[in-house]
Prior knowledge:
The complex is a heterodimer. Helices cover 73% and strands 0% of the residues of chain A. By secondary structure, chain A is mainly alpha-helical. In chain A, 44% of the residues are buried. Chain A is built from nine helices and no strands. Chain A has a domain at 32-153. Chain A has helices spanning 2-13, 24-30, 34-63, 72-94, 96-102, 106-110, 113-124, 129-157, 169-184. Chain B is mainly α. Chain B has eight helices and two strands. Chain B has helices at 2-13, 29-34, 39-62, 72-94, 96-102, 113-123, 128-158, 180-202; strands at residues 160-161, 164-165. A two-stranded antiparallel sheet of chain B has the order 1-2. The longest helix of chain B is centred in the last third of the chain and has 31 residues, at 128-158. Chain B starts with a helix and ends in an 8-residue tail after the last helix. Classes of the chains: A mainly alpha, B mainly alpha. The A-B interface holds A 18-25, 28, 70-74, 77-78, 81-82, 111-113, 116-117, 120-121, 124, 163-166, 169-174, 176-178, 180-181, 184 and B 26, 29-31, 33-34, 73-74, 77-78, 81-82, 84-85, 88-89, 103-104, 107-108, 110-113, 116, 176, 179-185, 187-189, 191-193, 195-196, 198-199.
Amino acid sequence: MDLVLIFLSAAIVNNFVLSYFLGICPFLGVSNKIEKSVSMGAATTFVMVLAALATWLINNYILIPYNMGYLQYVSFIIVIASLVQFVEMFIRKASPALYRGLGIFLPLITTNCAILGLALFAALRQYNFIQTVVFAFAAGVGFTLALVIMAGIREELDRAPVPEAFKGAPITLIIAGLLALAFMGFAGLISG
Amino acid sequence: MAENKVTLWYDFAKGLWDESPTFRQLLGMCPTLAVTNIAINGLAMGLATSFVLICSSVVVSMVRSLVPAGVRIPVYVVIIATFVTLADMFMAGNFPVISKALGPYVPLIVVNCIILGRAEAFASRNNVGRSFIDALGMGVGFSLALTVLGSVRELLGNGSVFGARILGSWFEPWVIMILPGGAFITLGLMIGGINMLRNRKKKPAPACEV
Lengths: 192, 210
């Protein structure tokens, strides 16, 4: 039950993009085609789960036992950056087909604040190992969901008469605001 | 000499309007949207980011000839993360209330694209003085944008600015403004408004130079 709550909370109620504002850059940049958004979302979810695992291990087996909490940010960001590199190299060798699908998005993911944000949130809330994995997966699903919904809207938006000054980022932000309002409707799902 | 001064002034001023990180380059959107529910949080976030931006730009500029091109990004990131840790500890020690309100968004300065962007695009190619001025301009521009956004949202969402009540009791606060949705909508309208101003200025082709 606890895990279901974590999942629903991270994927829908406290959606990473629409209520924590994490991962806005790819949200604004990549979300113009549904297909591209699905690939980006899948790549991000994959890296999120791996990064959450790695940072959880480091935090609980190295930083906390040796009382080196002050190294948290430095070590997390190094782990995430190198992890993304490894994943990119591994996928390129292991599955060229998958690489063509996800590869171009991987470098972008390092600077996606959703990954570091996820690691920090998991550490802050002192989730255990299983909870961290569920939380990471749910955050990835929520990110993908927001990205795909936005892409669907933007594909239609190309045909809409948007005022010149509002084309591009401004109208996307305003739509994101309306989406965030819609997602607020889920707030009642989880009390407290 | 005079030309030198003009360049330095340009390095500084471009961050305020022409290349404003928030309104023109759309960089660092996460903290911009997340912490500007009240003006003071926006200002604090702006100042913390400026501190990290200035320090890391200066250090990156100092070591720019020592760092091999292949590992420059990891090196920059470690430099940035070090200053972020400093800023985070300073805020937690001296301003615990604000530090708590900003929460994990202070450590997230590490991945703020403005900082890595300036390190890569400017500080790694220019001397320490110019990098400092450039970072200062960008920092002021970012702080200004965050404070303005925070003030607008606080005024409409709470009737006050920096905690001082401005609108009387007749004013029914727009709760939406301090919620996530309000952040997106306010920023979208502001960027659109600035684009409009810009287009209006551009359209009548200048007959004589200004």
